[in-house]
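Please decode residue identities from the backbone states below.
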């Protein structure tokens, strides 16, 4: 929320406590985003692409994973298409990021 920009080669990774259907909204989000949802084995299971910013406060619509997910990766809008992501792609975690088991 409240970000004015996201560097082109960066993303925001969210690790949830349990694998379940996840829901995100764009309340107070100023930039359009793609959201990639990954399961416990870090396989891509759902995407929401080119989500526009929302200034409607609590009336902003939710964007959900189609199936249960454990991780959500937010990228600048259009990056999922640019990278050619596909269902089943693996999320590889960098040093210092631990995987949920």
């Amino acid at each position: 929320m409240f970000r004015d920009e996201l560097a082109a080669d960066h993303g925001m990774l969210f690790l949830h406590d349990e694998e379940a259907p996840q829901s995100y909204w764009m309340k107070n989000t100023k930039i359009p985003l793609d959201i990639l949802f990954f399961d416990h084995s870090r396989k891509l299971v759902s995407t929401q692409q080119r989500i526009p910013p929302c200034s409607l406060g609590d009336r902003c619509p939710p964007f959900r994973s189609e199936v249960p997910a454990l991780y959500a990766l937010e990228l600048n809008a259009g990056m999922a298409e640019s990278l050619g992501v596909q269902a089943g792609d693996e999320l590889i975690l960098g040093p210092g990021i631990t995987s949920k088991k």
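Observation: Residues 79-83 form the longest helix (5 residues).
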